[in-house]
Amino acid sequence: MSSLNEKKPLIEKLKNKYRLTISNEATFDEVLSIRLSRLNVFTVTGLFSVLLIVLVTLLIAFTPLREYIPGYPDGEMRRNIENNDILVDSLILELEKRDRFFQGVRNIVEGNDFDNVVQSASDSIVDPKYKNLSFTRTESDSLFRLDHEEDEKYNLTLEDAPKSRGLSNTHFFSPIKGMITNHFDSKSQHYGTDIVGGVNERISSVLDGTVIFSEWTLNTGYVIQIQHSNNLLSVYKHNSELLKKAGEHVKAGEAIALLGNSGELTSGPHLHFELWHNGQPLNPEDYIKF
């Protein structure tokens, strides 16, 4: 009871009414008179302070004034951070695709199945109905492999065969029309034909196929490789710009790159074109009229 008696006078004091009067100093006429209490003053002052804090917070949070806060990035820095985040994310995805591609190629070469290939269903290279197939190497397969490797042991080049077996009826589209400056020569390990043309002239695919490589290399600049049917591979080097990405399907005659002078092993704008069949280099001039 004593504590209530002590608190009651304080509450009563807060509720006590006071009059604020403003008078004319010369005439002592009353200009303004306001009845106030301490509780009213504290309430109004508290509400005004809260409103002022909220307004200042909103003003800083939703206007360019926030950029003047020490340590807060400006608009240009935030844009750079966002762009770098997008580029890093894209780079990670491209690296994952590259790793999956090379893992698939490694499994094919080694004769393994695809259970250890980490890839999403959208870019899977295996038909789901063949996913559970297992590949085993029998004794007859091993003997056949040894016999075949022994027969091909000393077959270092196909230069003695003007037309590779099975390609005589294949119609190749010319990748570019121009003047040949360097011919195919397996002895000097020049496994392609150099053709000079106009700068930024379009380069076309020689056959229908799938792009398996489309990147920059130090020696040969921008390079694009296309896998065709019948175990054919076409290679286009020293381009100024690549128009297709790995994994894209192209048609014969479709533009895939622009003629350029990229890479360290080049002396001027030209296309270094290579044609491979079953892992062996072919002389492009035996099949294509440039």
TrEMBL record:
Question: Gene3D superfamilies in the record, alphabetically?
Answer: Glucose Permease (Domain IIA) (2.70.70.10)
> Where are its TM segments located?
41-62
Q: Provide the M23ase beta-sheet core domain boundaries.
A: 189-284
Name a GO molecular-function annotation. metalloendopeptidase activity
Q: Which UniProt keywords apply?
A: Membrane, Signal, Transmembrane, Transmembrane helix
The question of whether Methyltransferase is a record keyword is answered with no
In terms of superkingdom, the source organism counts as: Bacteria
Name this protein carries in UniProt: Peptidase M23
